[in-house]
Amino acid sequence: MLFSLPKLLCTAALLCGAAHARLTNYTLDDTSPAITYTATPLIRCAPGTCDAAWTARLFNRTSSTTNAYVVVPFTGSAVYAYLSMLGTCMFELDGVVTGAYAHSNASDADEIQPAYWTTGLPDTAHVLTIYPAQAGEVLQLDYIVYTHDAPARKVHLGAIIGGVLGGVALTAVLSLVAFFSRRHEKQRKLATRGIPLGTTGPTGRC
Ligand SMILES: *[C@@H]1O[C@H](CO)[C@@H](O)[C@H](O)[C@H]1NC(C)=O
Ligand SMILES: *[C@@H]1O[C@H](CO)[C@@H](O)[C@H](O)[C@H]1NC(C)=O
After folding, report:
1. Cβ neighbours for 172, distance < 8 A, ≥ 6 positions apart
2. CA–centroid distance, residue 147 to ligand 1 (Å)
3. Radius of gyration, CA atoms only, the chain
4. Which of 9, 36, 101, 206 has the most CB atoms less than 10 A away?
5. H/E element holding 5?
6. Nearest to 141 by CA among 65, 88, 204, 75
7. Cα distances (Å, whole numbers) of residue 63 to 45, 89, 100, 107, 144
8. Mean per-residue pLDDT for 27-45?
């Protein structure tokens, strides 16, 4: 037999296990259309509008400074926010406050830091909201990273399922062929008892 069913399922299970762990990080720049600023940012840093030495240190050379809410919808199991803050900013995940980031050292207030992260979420749609804790405080958003199971996995899984089903079908066909050819052979032996094997008659060319 060409295929062994248990072996085939085992291989598929291993491949599925490996594919399942293929998490991918996606980065949203502060300029991404996926991010909503409830008020127009006070400063939009980009080469030409902010100091070149500073923009060189930013993700994609841009940042957005705001004193209002920043709303970031994403689909994933983890999210990381990179920003700078002088004062305190709050983080809400799906409408619940899940974090705060305070920075009081004015001398390095501009430094972009991983100010917030959360992992182990269900890999579904979420909304991260970021805002300064008090009026008059501003935050400078550089970028957001979120982790999502790579979409390629679904295609991969489909291919595996297709492969397994194909293998099962082929196994079934081969079994049937084997069964019928054995039965045919038995009947042929019974019908041609006495005639040596190998003589298949005048038409036995193939
Ligand atoms: C995604 O990025 C975060 C933060 O940089 C990192 O800790 C995590 O390991 C990354 N995950 C993947 C799957 O690359
Ligand atoms: C980086 O900025 C350019 C415009 O300067 C934009 O076209 C591009 O989409 C940005 N890349 C990312 C990853 O946001």
Report:
1. none
2. 7
3. 32
4. 101
5. helix 5-20
6. 65
7. 5, 16, 20, 19, 11
8. 97
Closest CA to 132 of 173, 87, 93: 87
Would you state the torsion angle of the CA atoms of residues 72, 76, 82, 86, taken in this order, to the nearest 10 degrees? 50
Residues 156, 21 contacting (CB under 8 angstroms): no
Task: State pLDDT tens for residues 76-119.
Answer: 999 999 999 989 999 999 999 999 999 877 776 679 999 999 99
Q: Which helix (H) or strand (E) holds 143?
A: strand 139-149
In single-letter form, the type of residue at position 140 comes to Q
Enter the pTM of the model. Answer: 0.68
Atom of ligand 2 lying closest to residue 29 CA: 14
60 lines ligand 2 (CB under 6 A): yes
| Helix (DSSP H) and strand (DSSP E) numbers for the chain | 3, 11
The pLDDT of residue 86: 85
Mutate to test the pocket of ligand 1, among 117, 145, 149 (most ligand atoms within 8 A of CB): 145
CB 52 within 8 A of CB 121: no
- 11 Cβ inside 6 Å of ligand 2: no
